[in-house]
Amino acid sequence: MRRGRVVAATAAVLAVAAASVALTQFGSGPEAAAPKDGGLPPATALVERGDLRDSARADGTLGYDRQRKINAAVAGTLTWTPRTGSTVERNERLYEVNGRAVRLMYGSGPMYRTLKPGDSGRDVEQLERNLAQLGYTGFTPDDEYTELTAAAVKRWQKSHGVKQTGKVGPGDVAFAAAKVRIKSVAASVGDLAQPGAPVLTTTGSERVVTFQLDVAESRLAKAGTEVTVDLPDGSTAPGTVSSVGRTAKPGTDPQDTSPKVTLTVSFDKPDDVDGFDQSPVTVNLSGETRKGVLSVPVNALLALPAGGFGLQIVADGGVREVKVELGMFAEGRVEVSGAGVREGMKVGVPKI
Fold first, then answer.
1. Given a cut of 80, is residue 296 above it in pLDDT?
2. Contact 223, 204 (CB under 8 A)
3. 158 — phi, psi (to 5°)?
4. Which runs of E-coded beta strand occur in 271-317?
5. Which residues lie below 8 Å from residue 233, measured CB to CB, with a gap of 6+?
6. Which residue stretches of the chain are H helix?
7. pLDDT tens, residue by residue, 2-60
8. C-alpha–C-alpha distance, residues 305 and 161, integer Å
9. Counting C-beta atoms within 10 Å of the first and last residue's C-beta, which end of the chain has fewer, N or C?
């Protein structure tokens, strides 16, 4: 994970570090070295009014989501398999055993039994909705497999030149959420297929980016958050966070084992990423924006002897300390507020 400029999760550490630098460079407290030039700090910066945007950058991988293994449903000889990288849509062949095609239908549940008149359940409704989408109607799509459903199945079977039984089982249909892409083929034509043995590995057909984010930064990327993705050819594509993992796990980087969540980004314009696969990319996240706030460089902060933080105001050839309240840390700056700080004031900073 490459960090963004500054995020709230690291704000306290940065503030303390900045204060330490400030104390060393231009002094606050009885043990600090006295600044040169009559107490003036070695350099100054302006108190500015403007917008601060919380942001982060993360390394990700461009690929496909919803990876899944398709196992053989019946025993026999594989007589056809699809080409790696091809896309299979509703009603198209996934593979063939003994010349009998297993066709793709859309649904979230598995095809785990042979459906026939009198059966009921979610798998029945999935099948019926697919038949209706394909134009095989004459029944009400619901969870009841009736004789009307069987008649529609027979018409579907006839269209594919197979025996018209009115029944449908795992050797005829496999369900997936949508059209799939063939990632790999586990067996070759002519191999013996056994129930439960892998035949294909599929993914979703649309490209996505997966990346990890520190738990402390996950607030920057809720589902629906808009992001930009830097692609390998130097171009940038807009995207949206489509899912956020619910379980935090240690990262894969041995130098950074902090808990992380896995996120997925979908592209607003999928054509923008044609030609890329399993490629490294960078995800740019923008979080909260604070509009019209006062801010100073982080290294302008002083740790005050009585507690809290302050600034060294430089004016009329002298300096004075004012206490401030801190807000957002972002873009190397920190939001400040308080009665003694105004836009345009000069504040002391360590020498650059």
1. yes
2. no
3. -60, -40
4. 279-297, 302-303, 309-315
5. none
6. 11-26, 122-133, 147-159
7. 433 333 334 443 444 444 444 434 444 333 333 444 578 999 999 999 998 877 788 99
8. 87
9. C
